[in-house]
Specification:
The protein is mainly β. Helices cover 0% and strands 46% of the residues. The protein is built from no helices and 30 strands. Strands 1, 23, 24, 25, 26 and 27 form a 6-stranded antiparallel beta sheet that branches.
Length: 435
């Protein structure tokens, strides 16, 4: 439920089965985006490395919203927001010091729960914020910002709606009718377009996915609890026939047996609908005895009917944690990995992206035309000549183009939000893949 040196080439590092590594220069990136296929947002709030995008959304107008953390010190970070247009220009950026995370015993933390974009292209965020260790010092905030990332005062009068005491929101969804859904406990609260509470209904979700104009899916699950799907109509009413009783479990606290990792907690990260109508959930497990991470893509039928949960794909690298997923209408599935595989430094060098292909028989396999089915990394050059380090946290498909989001270490004490957009047809990969 997170930077780049300007004017330097980005290299794609191939670790595939094609023999010797063959670097491909930044011609694979879209040169119309940011001038060289990439764009950055620098916050300069403390000169400490670590700034990274946690969430990314299209704004419905050709641009991209990004939300993450900007580090003030090595133990203190604050919420940061940046908005880019389709050409990679920065439309606005802002930091929100009231949402602060400290890695000490002060209890001062915030957690970004979910994001959504409304019909006007404005970003809404669901945030739990604590100013101390006691539960009474924690609250839930629904925040909306304008195109330049400043508070939208039409929303609650200040740009922020604060929940009632003891109420904590998870998922948030901007509905077609202008209302905002906010999930709490076992119900959805509804707010008007100006942030006024207007009612509630049963149901819950930590993240939502719009299937079409009449259907919305909700996903809950944390690894210690079962990952569960729910289906809602456009008004926010839960479909109690879905899955037989209104819910569809993906496993009681563990990854499905079909993924060969029984007994390991499955942590769901992303929810999408495949081109054939099936529901795909991206997540990872961590083995309790070895601490090794493994990421999986699991799926269920479009109807949510009972039956086995299919293991659609085991992602290619042991120890890599899945962080983002995007689908393209041609059946390709793109996945970002935000940690390096165990015992490997492959992804420390760049923003890691994998691609898979939906087969006619419904299976999903590594896309042999995309870097020979191997993960590749978009390298971020450094200003100080040090070893490149970067990682990807999210991926979107925008009118066929693949857009990767994350953070890059520009120098030993500097990270920036990083966005890279690949050419839509991906024809410049060295193995000759063409759409």
């Amino acid at each position: 439920m997170k930077t780049l040196m300007r004017g330097a080439a980005i290299t794609l590092l191939f670790a595939g089965a094609c023999g010797a590594q063959a670097p491909v220069q930044d011609t694979v990136l879209d040169p119309t985006f940011g001038g060289d296929g990439r764009a950055v947002a620098e916050f300069d709030v403390g000169g400490i490395r670590g700034d990274v995008i946690l969430e990314a959304r299209t704004d419905g107008r050709g641009g991209y919203w990004t939300v993450g953390r900007a580090f003030v010190t090595s133990t203190r970070s604050i919420l940061a927001i940046a908005h880019f247009d389709r050409a990679g220009n920065l439309l606005g950026k802002a930091t929100r010091p009231e949402f602060e995370y400290r890695s000490d015993d002060s209890g001062r933390i915030y957690e970004l729960q979910d994001t959504t974009v409304d019909a006007d292209g404005l970003l809404l965020l669901s945030i739990i914020n604590c100013t101390g260790p006691a539960i009474s010092q924690c609250g839930s905030f629904l925040v909306r910002v304008t195109a330049d990332a400043s508070p939208d005062v039409r929303w609650g009068g200040t740009g922020t709606v604060v929940s009632a005491a003891g109420v904590f929101y998870g998922g948030v969804h901007a509905a077609n009718d202008g209302r905002v859904w906010a999930s709490r406990g076992d119900r959805l609260d509804f707010y008007s377009a100006t942030g006024t509470f207007v009612g509630f209904a049963g149901g819950r979700a930590t993240t939502f996915a719009r299937v079409n104009d009449t259907t919305v899916l909700g996903l809950t699950g944390s690894g210690s609890t079962a990952a569960v799907l729910r289906r809602f109509d456009a008004s926010g009413t839960q479909d109690l026939t879905y899955g037989g009783d209104g819910t569809r479990e993906l496993g009681s606290g563990s990854t499905p047996q079909q993924c060969n990792a029984a007994g390991s907690d499955f942590v769901p990260r992303e929810l999408s609908v495949l081109a054939d109508g099936r529901i795909a959930v991206l997540g990872y497990v961590q083995d309790a005895s070895t601490a090794v991470l493994q990421s999986y893509l699991v799926g269920v039928g479009a109807s949510g009917a009972s039956g086995p949960v299919a293991c659609l794909a085991v992602l290619p690298a042991d120890g890599a944690r899945a962080s983002g997923m995007a689908l393209r209408s041609d059946g390709r599935v793109f996945v970002t990995l935000d940690t390096a595989p165990t015992g490997s430094s492959q992804f420390a060098a760049g923003m890691a992206l994998s691609a898979m292909r939906l087969q006619p028989d419904g299976s999903i396999v590594p896309d042999p035309g995309f870097n020979s089915g191997q993960t590749f990394a978009i390298e971020v050059p450094r200003t100080d000549g040090g070893v490149p380090r970067a990682f990807a946290t999210q991926v979107l498909v925008d009118e066929g183009a693949v857009v990767v989001f994350g953070g890059g270490e520009v120098a030993n004490t500097s990270n920036d939000f990083t966005v890279a957009r690949l050419l839509g047809d991906l024809r410049l990969f060295h193995n000759g893949f063409e759409d």
